[in-house]
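Write out this protein's structure.
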Amino acid sequence: MEQEVFRLKQQLLEKEREISGLKDTLSQLQTLNRSNKSSIELQEKVTPLAHLKEKATLSNEEIMRYSRQLLLPELGVKGQLKLSQASVLVVGCGGLGCPLAQYLAAAGIGRLGLLDYDEVELSNLHRQVLHGEDTRGQPKALSAAQAIKRLNPDVECIPYHLKLSHENALQLVQQYPPCVCSFA
């Protein structure tokens, strides 16, 4: 009987150490998550944006990241540099806006404006691929921007927690001028 009690106490101590380690890991992840969230500022009004910095070359990391599309003769390095100078405003971070933003970021767009006035709900999660359980209740624009930053930290994400209206449409659209891109 004493041996059984001793063995159980040893198991209990081992489990307590394991729980302590898991708590430390959770605390580190929560700290990291808070710092990632705070680095993206949610815009609740339209403010002027600075022009994107022009790049003369791609970094080694960018060459590795975009290596498959750089091989395309229609795109190449010149086209990738043009993509990095382009800005796109995505209106709506739902079922269509999420994959659009995801693919634009993966391709290396320079700036991505994400406009949505709604918040993430459980019923969104099965079709709005940038949102997750951990972002329920957050503004969709912020949730999408956080996911985009995890996907490609080089993309400048600007989340707008606004409803597109006739009062703000012109100001918003002017922040994201059309790009006439000829890649070949």
